[in-house]
Specification:
Elements (H helix, E strand, L loop, with lengths): L7 E2 L3 E9 L3 E8 L4 E8 L5 E2 L8 E2 L3 H20 L11 E7 L2 E7 L3 E3 H7 L6 H20 L12 E4 L4 E3 L12 H4 L22 H17 L6 H6 L15 H10 L11 H8 L85 H13 L3 H14 L4 H13 L3 H14 L4 H12 L4 H14 L4 H13 L3 H12 L3 H14 L11 H16 L3 H14 L4 H13 L3 H14 L4 H13 L3 H14 L4 H14 L2 H12 L3 H13 L34
Length: about 700
């Protein structure tokens, strides 16, 4: 019946041994000669319809109706292979990497991984595991099912023996298509194969309406089995007398809300179950009726082809399955095993490893870290696989609920999936964890705009561009929000700002605004004059010690003139005075981008680095400052103090020698630092209007005493 060892398939895959077999197929371990790796090869082989002579390779089909049914099953086998190949990038699904026809049958090639199925793992753990561990294993499975459902498919055979725990700690869903229901004559031959206790009642009849709720029942039953040690009663038996006990009655420790969610998922009537896997997941985790998914790099603009039209509202929720929702069946027909490994099928062949893999022997199971799932999510976003991306980012957040990039990546996926409320929730989580993240506010603005909440959308866009003044997409969307809410002057002003950042986007934006307000030309912005007024206002606040008000004025000025070095230098000083040293570093770096030879930008950059304890970088910046302006005593003092911190007393003395000819008082203070030695160096006491290492911030720059050269 089996292919002989050494058989070469498709001029590439050399058969090694049999891994397992069932009524509809055989799985082999093979070597991929091209890549020189082991693979699992699934052969379509329905034993009730065909046979094979000992030592032969070609499959012989029985005569009569068997040939018609065999051809039908072969077609469905290939259809399912093509369908699941789309999940190749999902971290929790083992999909087909190749498929072909040969020997009067068809083959599917899958990655070969070692591990153990969930059924065997439960056995080795004494028959059951804790609710927390069961959830840790099942959440990635449910993420995978969400991706499957999003593609219009169903699994229809979720159970412990179709969940695989790999040696490297991953959880994988496999064996799609095992439910063989198809209206027509073929159904009588390709009979319904169900797992008692895991299949809901609608799978027992061709008239049963199936949908995501079908897999939800099976997922719930799998969790039930894992935490109680007992397979749930068969669905048909429950119809005549429901004896399904809550897990707590069987001794399982489970939160009351989670138990309620589990029993709801296993309701006999489909209409009483959850409508989506996401809703079930949220209920299990105690997150309410909807999952709190998250964000990523959002679409650069709101989809607004007609600026005068209101932003679209979220789609209405789906109706219950027994009413008007059309059932989207999974690819039907012949069994599709995504992977059959050494521990699966019937008895493993000699030499295969069915024991519990290393790393899965303890009470908790190792998994890939959150960074891995964030990377997987980003890859899925790049390929526009948004449902897969959502699952990956959710997996990352389950491992680390404070991972901001995961929230941001999830939000992008949710925006693309038009789940605007969930996207807003995710953006809010990112804001709470990182209040200075401009992208979180931007994505919240997009989500609000698509829910027709333009005022709040504008507020979020305003915060995004305040945090990042050169954020062109933020200005673009802010202008659109203004335009759609009738604030034409504000919209035109944003267009003027955008013109200095991205001329092409500004032209596109102007065309949209003019469609909304055809009678009016753009308001002529005061531009440089207004920015200069705000700059001087900011400097006055700095001189008065009102640093926060100075920041507000200077950031407004920067939005009008993003390429004004004076504004950036003074903004850096305000940040420094407020203790926002990293922001001061960035402000001075941007000033240097506009004028690399600015000695003040180099000096102030060195001061900010020093406050962050980054003394090597501080020294480099200050060395450039004194080269640009050798007679600037303050820079020599600051550089000497940094050298003391670094233990370079010889270099500190050279700065002292220079200071003797420039400022005797500073020279004396630096000498005191040198005499203290590197381990005792302290910052000198604060002096007014002096910029030194450890003292007050950089000097104020105005239009009167600074003309763009440092």
């Amino acid at each position: 019946m089996y292919l002989p060892r050494g058989t070469l398939l498709n001029d590439r895959y050399e058969i090694d041994s049999v891994l397992g077999h069932g009524g509809f197929g055989i799985t082999y371990l093979a070597r991929d000669r091209t890549l020189n790796v082991h693979v699992a090869v699934k052969e379509y082989f329905p034993r009730q319809l065909a046979t094979r002579a000992e030592g032969a390779t070609r499959v012989s089909v029985f005569t009569g109706k068997s040939q018609e049914h065999y051809a039908y099953g072969l077609k469905k086998f290939l259809e399912e292979a093509r369908s699941v190949a789309q999940f190749a990038d999902h971290p929790n699904i083992v999909s087909a990497r190749d498929y072909f026809q040969a020997n009067n049958t068809a083959y599917m090639v899958m990655r070969y991984v070692q591990g153990v199925d969930f059924k065997e793992y439960l056995k080795q753990q004494g028959g059951k595991v804790s609710f927390d561990l069961a959830l840790k294993i099942m959440m990635p499975v449910m993420d995978a099912l969400r991706a499957v459902h999003s593609a219009g498919l169903l699994h229809r055979d979720v159970s412990p023996d179709n969940i695989y725990l790999t040696r490297d700690g991953q959880v994988r869903l496999m064996d799609f298509g095992a439910a063989r229901q198809q209206v027509g004559e073929q159904e009588k031959t390709l009979s319904v194969i169900l797992k008692a206790g895991y299949a809901p009642v609608e799978q027992y009849t061709s008239k049963g309406k199936q949908g995501p709720w079908t897999d939800i029942y099976a997922a719930g039953a799998t969790i039930y089995r894992a935490i109680t040690g007992q397979t749930p009663p068969e669905a048909l038996d429950r119809v005549t007398g429901d004896e399904l006990l809550p897990p707590s009655r069987l001794g399982a420790a489970i939160p009351a809300a989670a138990e309620q969610a589990l029993m709801k998922a296993m309701s006999l009537k489909a209409a009483q179950r959850y409508e989506s896997m996401a809703e079930f997941q949220a209920a299990l985790e105690g997150r309410g009726p909807a999952p709190g998914a998250a964000l990523g790099v959002p679409p650069p603009r709101m989809e607004t082809a007609k600026p005068s039209a209101p932003a679209p509202t979220p789609a209405a929720p789906a109706k219950k399955p027994d009413r008007t929702i059309p059932v989207v069946f999974t690819v039907v027909g012949i069994i599709l095993a995504l992977i059959i490994l050494a521990s699966l099928g019937t008895k493993p062949e000699k030499g295969t490893n069915a024991s519990l893999p290393p790393g899965l022997t303890g009470p908790s199971m190792p998994t890939y870290n959150d960074h891995y799932y964030v990377d997987q999510g980003r890859k899925a976003l790049a390929m526009k696989n948004y449902e897969i991306a959502r699952g990956s980012f959710n997996s990352a957040l389950r491992l680390n609920s404070k991972n901001v990039p995961a929230y941001l990546g999830l939000a992008e996926a949710l925006l693309e999936l038009k789940s605007f409320k969930e996207a807003l929730d995710a953006a809010s989580q990112a804001m709470a964890l990182e209040p200075g993240n401009h992208m979180a506010y931007f994505q919240a603005g997009v989500a609000l705009a698509f829910q027709s909440n333009l005022n709040d959308a504008a507020k979020n866009f305003e915060t995004a561009v305040r945090l990042k003044p050169d954020f062109s997409e933020g200005h673009f969307n802010l202008a659109l929000a203004y335009a759609l809410s009738g604030r034409k002057d504000a919209a035109f002003k944003q267009q003027e700002i955008l013109r200095n950042l991205d001329a092409k986007s500004a032209a596109d934006l102007l065309a949209l605004i003019r469609k909304k307000f055809p009678e009016k030309e753009p308001v002529k912005s005061a531009g440089p004059q207004e920015a200069q007024k705000l700059l001087e206002e900011g400097i006055k606040y700095l001189d008065a010690g009102s640093n926060q008000r100075a920041v507000e004025a200077l950031e407004k000025a920067l939005r009008l003139e993003p390429k004004n070095a004076q504004i950036r230098l003074n903004l850096g000083r305000a940040y420094f005075n407020l203790g926002r040293y990293q922001a001061a570093v960035e402000a001075n770096q941007r000033a240097l981008g506009l004028n690399p030879d600015s000695f003040l930008a180099n000096h102030n950059l060195g001061m900010a680095y020093a406050k962050l304890g980054r003394y090597q970088e501080a020294a480099r910046a200050l060395e450039k400052a004194v080269r640009l302006k050798p007679d600037y005593a303050q820079a020599h003092y600051s550089l000497g103090a940094i050298y003391c911190k670094l233990g370079r007393l010889d270099l500190a003395r050279s700065q002292h020698a220079i200071l003797l000819n420039q400022d005797a008082k500073l020279a004396s203070e630096l000498l005191a630092l040198i005499n203290q030695g590197p381990s005792k160096t302290r910052a000198p006491k604060k002096k007014a209007a002096v910029t030194t290492f450890g003292i007050s911030g950089p000097p104020t720059l105005t239009g009167r005493n600074y003309k763009g050269k440092g």
